[in-house]
Design brief:
Layout lengths: L6 H5 L4 H11 L13 H9 L3 H9 L7 E10 L41 H12 L1 E8 L1 H10 L8 E6 L4 E5 L9 H15 L4 E6 L10 E4 L9 E2 L8 E5 L7 H11 L9 E5 L11 H4 L1 E3 L25 H8 L7 H10 L6 H7 L4 E3 L4 E3 L1 H14 L4 H13 L5 H15 L4 H16 L4 H17 L10 H11 L1 H5 L6 E2 L20 E9 L4 E6 L11 E6 L5 E4 L7 E3 L5 E3 L6 E5 L2 E9 L6 E5 L7 E8 L2 E9 L7 E2 L5 E4 L2 E8 L2 E8 L2 E5 L21 E5 L3 E4 L5 H8 L20 H14 L5 E2 L3 H9 L58 E7 L9 E2 L11 E4 L15 E4 L8 E2 L3 E2 L12 H4 L17 H9 L8
Parallel strand pairs: 4-5, 4-8, 8-9, 9-10, 30-34, 33-37
Antiparallel strand pairs: 1-21, 2-3, 5-6, 6-7, 11-12, 13-18, 14-15, 14-16, 15-19, 17-18, 17-20, 20-21, 22-23, 23-24, 24-25, 26-27, 27-28, 28-31, 29-30, 31-38, 32-38, 33-35, 35-36
Helix pairs in contact: 10-13, 11-14, 15-16, 16-17, 16-18, 17-18
């Protein structure tokens, strides 16, 4: 092999492995072998020169990531969505404004929630749990008789004791925010007990959360008034009953421990204690459960008349998934406790314990007036609402309940809810539109009253924080931009846009807010590649850098810079570019850059496998041009540029003989006015052979083990003819010699060509076209191309018909229906191509491959396999022919014969490559075996007697038909 200056090391007796290491160290490259005479011996010797040890070294060496270049794949003109981008008329000085009755104050108080359950249902449990027996006037006859029977002295007559409500009761309320949905229920119970027992008999307190569980714990009256003062909590007297309203810490282990420490001081008291918990479960393994006696406060159960002392676990199954419930709530800007309970009951979401699960859900945040969903997740839930509920009868009930509950509330809140309804339900509402137009007019033109202007500006910010993102593509988009202009007027004029913009938001729609925007304010934004991994930097053009080289340029107003859109443009957020912003194009997903009325789609590309070089060239222009070079037939086609026209997808400006269609890249080879098209086959990995469950696999045991299923990786792409060599192309290369038996048309494939004849043809073709490197495909290359990405028996699917493949239709595959038996070849391209644009890979004629035959390919993974074999050894052919059975035209079927054999079904397909096929790295008995037979040719491969052989097969005596 030629190593140029490293030949001294080879002369010194170094191994090839040492040569490989030294070449990598000093940056030398392996030169191609000198041109040899085409033929079997030349191909075998060239491939055998590489040892398995050196190949393993090359494969396992870590590789540097290839350079990636950004390119524009498409430029799409955009519609602004609004024909008129001028200032809306309703923002004029004379436009109607909000009336005094539209701006009331103090109306953010909402109706309290209905009680979880009426007091009448709770009274039996409370009485039986907290009563204190007291002596009455009646005689206890049973006790009297018992004492007499025991002979005890009667100092006094025993009186009968009756259960009575306690004379004093202390109610301890857990007022933590996790139980806020039940605060009104706790207040209801306190009020009812005070009415029953008297205000002096009932004391309601709550603990200070900061001192809870400490010896200095403090408490304060509940409900707390403005003048109430906190005090140290003292253990109540022995005759004071204790009612706990809370969850004893619930699932919060820290809070549970603090409550246990706080209430542990009550354990030695004789007075009764009862806990009412609104959650689904109460602790049943804590030592204080027996004397605290947690019982459920839940509207989904029947309240027991007597207290339980072992905790409880309701295990209630909610009829609606939490995702569905949060989707409903995402439509609302504010959910108070009363509204939450009304919606739960109206829409039958579940029992009252569900309210705490919603209130404390991680996707929910508290606002002081209620709850709402976090902005980061609200839009996902709103999309769920639109997909599942919009337009339904349940949605109608939902909005009616919301409207009824918030009827006394602030008008702005009610109108915001109606706005959300219109956007999510794709409805229009004249009243809503009129209100927000008045609001915008008032806020935009009110310069005298700073307080009112600030209040309205804050209201606009609240609206922006609560409305669906789809508003930018709705019937209310103009109003939304007006509200945005009022809320963010100063930031817009200062050019301070948010880091991310919502989907559908177009800053250009606010150009009316900046009267200085004109043609003179346009600037050029240059996009420059930095680094080698498709990284770009956005730079604003200035007079100080006239020589700046850029990849592409976008002209846009300085106030409205270009925007980056990552992912699906319908859902993805947008990033505003600034001078100096750097960003990278992801390897598997491109990005879009939008500016004004155009959108640029970009992706990142490494050097195509069919190219020998890729680079950015500037030539005489400041704009860079992505170019590639393609080697072909001993010639290098340089400076093939990437071009893009607005409204069209980008493409390479391929010169003749190259082209591109729906199947991909192709090249046309013309010899003596006859053209053969070649398709570029990308490198890749596939499963060679057939799986064990493939029908009629190795049928009849003819070639057992010949289709072993194993992974194969092809590291190099290659050119493959899209058809078998035609008789016209054969004559164009070799003259008038045509061995074919079917000469109906020059476009019929050449047949009756031996493997030796094929290499004589290839040798002549390489003489006519120096540097072409014409050859036969390896067996792995042939099957990889035949499958075209499929794993089924055929590239067309699980079965075939004669309309797809030219084979003997009298013998279909796997019980299929019989079909046409043409009894001869057909012209190439008469039948459908596979997914890679290759015609008649199944049937028509067998196709010789470069490999020598191996009876078993093994099950191990291999890379670029090729077996040169010995001179005279059997060679592989694939694909089946016009006379083959259906099973024999499968992608995995293999056959072989001597290189000198000819037959009426034997043809071939050309491959081109930058280098000759490499020997498989795997060594051993399986891959080194050669299967050679003499005098055992197939019936199809013999020019005479093939009909007799077929007759023998039909009688069950001859060899199985191929």
């Amino acid at each position: 092999m030629a190593w140029t200056r490293l030949a001294l090391l080879q002369a010194a007796g170094q191994s090839e492995q040492a040569l490989v290491k030294m070449a990598d160290l000093f940056g030398y490259e392996r030169l191609p072998e000198p041109e040899r005479d085409a033929g079997i011996a030349a191909q075998g010797e060239a491939s055998a020169s590489r040892s398995a040890e050196a190949a393993e070294e090359t494969r396992t060496k870590p590789k540097r990531s290839p350079a990636r270049f950004p390119r524009i794949t498409k430029i799409i003109p955009l519609e602004t969505g609004r024909d008129d981008l001028s200032k809306p008329e309703y923002l004029s000085e004379t436009a109607p404004r909000l009336r005094p009755q539209d701006m009331p104050s103090g109306t953010y108080s909402f109706a309290a929630a209905d009680p979880v359950m009426p007091m009448a249902r709770l009274l039996p449990l409370l009485f039986n749990s907290l009563n204190q027996p007291r002596a009455g006037n009646g005689l206890d006859q049973r006790l009297l008789l018992r004492r007499i029977a025991r002979g005890q002295a009667l100092c006094h007559l025993p009186k009968r004791h009756r259960p009575r409500w306690p004379q004093r009761m202390q109610i301890i309320v857990d007022a933590s925010q996790r139980l806020e949905p039940y605060w009104s229920d706790f207040a209801y119970i306190v009020r009812q007990l005070r009415q029953l027992l008297g205000d002096e008999a009932v004391e309601a307190i709550r603990f200070d959360e900061d001192t809870l569980g400490t010896p200095e714990s403090r408490c304060i009256r509940w409900p707390t008034q403005d003048r109430d003062q906190a005090r140290c909590w003292q253990v109540p007297a022995h005759d004071v009953a204790i009612l706990l309203l809370g969850d004893l810490g619930g699932e919060d282990s820290r809070a549970s421990v603090r409550w246990q420490r706080q209430l542990g001081r009550l354990q030695s008291r004789p007075a009764p204690v009862l806990t009412l918990s609104p959650l689904q479960a109460a602790p049943d393994d804590n030592p204080y459960t027996r004397w605290l006696r947690p019982n459920p406060l839940n509207d989904g159960i029947t309240v027991s008349r007597h207290p339980a002392s072992h905790g409880f676990n309701l295990q209630a199954t909610q009829p609606h998934a939490m995702v569905d419930i949060l989707a409903w709530l995402s439509a609302l800007p504010l959910i108070d406790t009363g509204l939450l309970r009304r919606l739960r009951r109206e829409l039958s979401w579940g029992d009252s314990s569900l309210e705490a699960l919603i209130w404390n859900h991680p996707d929910v945040r508290r606002t002081g007036l209620g709850i709402r969903l976090h902005d980061e997740v609200a839009e996902n839930y709103r999309r769920h609402y639109q997909q599942r509920h919009a337009g339904s009868d349940l949605a109608r009930r939902f909005w009616e309940t919301v409207t009824e509950h918030h009827q006394p509330a602030y008008l702005g809140l009610r109108q915001l809810e109606r706005l959300n309804y219109c956007v999510l339900e794709n409805q229009d509402d004249a009243e809503v539109r009129d209100y927000f137009q008045r609001l915008c007019a008032t806020a935009f033109n009110n310069a005298s009253d700073a307080n009112q202007r600030h209040a309205l500006q804050m209201q606009c910010k609240t609206i922006l924080a609560s409305r669906p993102q789809t508003i930018w593509n709705s019937k209310f988009d103009e109003l939304a931009y007006s509200i945005y202009a009022i809320a963010c007027r100063d930031q817009i004029r200062a050019g301070n846009w948010p880091e991310e913009l919502e989907p559908g938001f177009k800053p250009e729609s606010l150009s009316w807010l900046l009267p200085e925007v004109s043609d003179s304010s346009l600037v050029a934004w240059n996009f420059v590649q930095i680094g080698s991994q498709a990284e770009l930097q956005c730079l604003m053009a200035t007079d100080s850098d006239p020589a700046l080289r850029y990849l592409f340029q976008i002209v846009a107003p300085k106030a409205f810079p270009p925007q980056i859109i990552r992912g699906d443009s319908a859902l993805a957020k947008r990033q505003i570019l600034a001078d100096g912003t750097r960003f990278a194009i992801a390897e598997k997903s491109g990005i879009s850059i939008e500016s004004g009325n155009r959108c640029f789609h970009l992706d990142a590309i490494a050097k195509p496998t069919w190219a020998s070089r890729i680079c950015l060239s500037h030539a005489d222009s400041r704009a860079a041009r992505l170019t590639v070079s393609i080697p072909w037939a001993g010639r290098e086609f340089d400076n093939i540029g990437w071009y893009i026209d607005e409204g069209h997808s980008g493409s390479w400006a391929l010169p003749s003989p190259f082209g591109e269609d729906l199947y991909g890249l192709y090249a046309d080879l013309t010899v003596n006015n006859v053209t053969q098209r070649f398709r570029w086959i990308e490198p890749g990995t596939f499963m060679m052979g057939s799986p064990a469950d493939e029908l009629e696999r190795e049928w009849g045991g003819d070639l057992p083990g010949s289709e072993t299923h194993h992974p194969v990786t092809l590291t190099q792409g290659f050119w493959l003819a899209d058809t078998a060599v035609t008789q016209a192309f054969w004559r164009a290369v070799l003259g008038g010699d045509n061995p074919s038996g079917f000469q109906d048309s020059p476009e019929h494939p050449v047949e009756q060509a031996s493997w030796d004849d094929v290499w004589r043809f290839i040798a002549r073709l390489n003489e006519l076209m120096p540097g072409l490197h014409a050859q036969l495909p390896t067996e792995a290359q042939w099957e990889y191309a035949c499958r075209a990405g499929t794993a089924t028996p055929f590239s067309f699917g699980a079965n075939i018909t004669p309309e797809q493949v030219n084979y003997d239709g009298d013998y279909p595959y796997a019980g299929g229906e019989k079909g046409l038996n043409r009894g001869k070849t057909v012209a190439v391209k008469s039948l459908p191509a596979n997914a890679w644009g290759l015609y008649e890979m199944h049937g028509n004629v067998w196709e010789w491959c470069a490999d020598a035959w191996q009876d078993n390919l093994g099950e191990s993974a291999v890379v670029d396999p090729y077996t040169p074999g010995e001179p005279g050894g059997d060679r592989v052919f694939r694909g089946g022919s016009w006379i083959s059975l259906g099973r024999n035209v499968r992608s995995a079927f293999r056959e072989h014969d001597a290189p000198a054999e000819r037959g009426r079904g034997m043809g071939f397909r050309l491959a081109l490559g930058h280098a000759e096929p490499r020997r498989t790295v795997e060594s051993g008995a399986q891959n080194s075996r050669r299967f050679a037979r003499s005098g055992s040719g197939l019936s199809e491969l013999r020019p005479a007697g093939w009909g007799t052989s077929l007759l023998g097969e039909l009688r069950g005596k001859g060899r199985k038909k191929k």
